[in-house]
Amino acid sequence: MPNHSSPQSPIPRRSYRVQFDGGQNYSLAGIIDRPAHDDDVRATVVFSHCFTCNKDLKAIVKISRSLCALGVAVLRYDMTGLGGSDGDFSETNFTSNMEDLKAAIHFTEGELGTVTGLMGHSFGGAATLAILSESLFSSSSNQKAKPVGITLAAPSDTQHLAALLIRMNPEIETHGSGMVSIGGREWRITRQMIDDFRSHKLPDRIGRITNPTLLFHSPDDETVSYDHALRIASLLQSSPNNQNPPSLISLLGSDHLLTRTPSTIDWISQSAASFLTRFNE
Question: With the CA atoms of 149, 216, 279 and 67 taken in that order, what torsion angle do they form, in degrees rounded to the nearest 10?
């Protein structure tokens, strides 16, 4: 039987690279961080990165490894056209992000067993919320069988990103594509991407989620304002079928990429691991 007692020392980790077919049939790159011994696995999570980020973002790597030390197996992966994954980023959109996440869940089920949690940072958090709303998870009558959702600095809609990108370069809309600078790199953003962002009604999806959900957000986030976390919590709270009130943890002093306060990573990891095991024991 798995040992569900709190570990007195970090659980030994085994990490390895994987590849699997994404939602657009491109090969996606991933890394699995898992306890070295099966008996130490207390939960299994798929971790989605932020817009234009990848699985090797410093915060994602640290959180994944910290979760592993607490008994959580994690798949962190690159969405289509990013990091080590194949494909053209300019041809992706929120719909393809969701399809990549579904593919990652399917792969993880075969590689590690039942997925008991979805975790996402920023736009990856939006994809996490969108997938949690689908019947793939939300139709289960067994509350304990539902994977929990955990978001880090997630937006409450996808339209705000479309508006931000157009402000950064109006040629995206007038000429069909344009370059924008994000994270010190130039990215080609296309009108089809913007149109797709505008087409999704994420608030409606959030209102259908019945899974236990934990939200992390900083009141000092200058990229995705704290109002988004409050809106997500309100939408989850008001869902008529949700018997699991959302939990919101405010990451005081932290920035959007979770680099400003190193202790935040431990705070997130320990809280997330406790949340995961609470609903999966």
Answer: 90
The model scores a pTM over 0.90: yes
CB 238 within 8 A of CB 207: yes
**Of 146, 181, 199, which closes a domain?**
199
The share of the chain scoring above pLDDT 90, in percent, equals 85
Is the pLDDT at 130 greater than 60, yes or no?
A: yes
Domain hosting 80: range is: 13-156+202-278
Q: Which of 89, 86, 116 is nearest to 280 (CA)?
A: 116
How many angstroms separate the first and last alpha carbons of the chain? 12
User: In this structure, are residues 153 and 226 in contact, taking their beta carbons and an 8 Å threshold?
Assistant: no
CA 107 to chain centre: 16
Query: 79 exposed, middle or buried (CB, 10 Å; 0-12, 13-18, 19+)?
Result: buried
**With 70 as the cut, is the pLDDT of residue 141 above it?**
no
